[in-house]
């Protein structure tokens, strides 16, 4: 039996999808739930985005936050089986810890006491080595973007907005100090298929990424080799998508469905993988959610 500590934000269902899969495999699990960010941290994030991207970008981002439900409604869920009852049940059965600051002394002590073999990021913000280096055998992340081409936040939206549908996918990688720069284990393109809406396609991508993550963890549990390779240079780092990026992504998606669907209905393509062959990292989310449990 191995021990896995899952780090998530505001009880994201993807974290408990991993937890239920690991529990079914009779593994020891724990959860850290980051409940939000202090107001000061949120303001510093916005100030950094304004400084790096400009005032127009920041205004566009805030507009996207206000109108996000128009383009990404919550009616299509990647993990419909993970409801509040499932989350509460897992928290009752396994060690869990809620915090605002994942690097606070109490949180780091929780990690030391749990003594994980592996730390798994499931919608967590950017973490420091003071936390993820406490895993005896390393940390893994599910990144919704094809590395090294797309690093950062909202990578599927950016790829579609840039008319780069062939680079919409995900990566499973080891966690390193530099964001989205760890050694790659698995990269997969998720093609557009008939019948998907824009939000349905993004939900399918999220679920496929989590299923592949579980596949990697199966190899870890079995003691099979999990090969990883250093990322080549290149690619782009993208910030959280603003309103115009989100709108352009949906327009390009709709156009692809209309005029290029036959070419895009091939099965999923594994670009790089081990023998199994981090929607967005959550780093720049600025909304909040109350902790349960």
Write a structural description.
The protein contains 10 helices and 10 strands. With 293 residues, it is an alpha/beta fold. The chain has an 8-stranded mixed sheet with strand order 3-2-1-4-5-7-8-10, sandwiched between helices. 40% of the residues are buried.
Briefly characterize the structure.
The chain has 10 helices and 10 strands.
The side-by-side strand order for the widest beta sheet comes to 3-2-1-4-5-7-8-10
Structural class: alpha/beta
Gyration radius, to the nearest Å? 18 Å
Which series of helices and strands comes N to C?
Answer: EHEHHHEHEHEEHEEHEHHE
The level of helicity is 40-55%
Number of domains: 1
Average pLDDT level? 89
Uncertain segments: 273-293
**Shape, per Cα inertia axes:** globular
Architecture, CATH level 2? Answer: 3-Layer(aba) Sandwich
- For the secondary structure, the number of strands is 10
Question: Proportion of β residues?
Answer: 15-25%
Biggest pleated-sheet summary: 8 strands, mixed
CATH class: Alpha Beta
**Termini distance?**
26 Å
Q: Remind me, CATH topology?
A: Rossmann fold
Q: If helices are DSSP runs of H or I spanning 4 or more residues, what is the number of helices?
A: 10
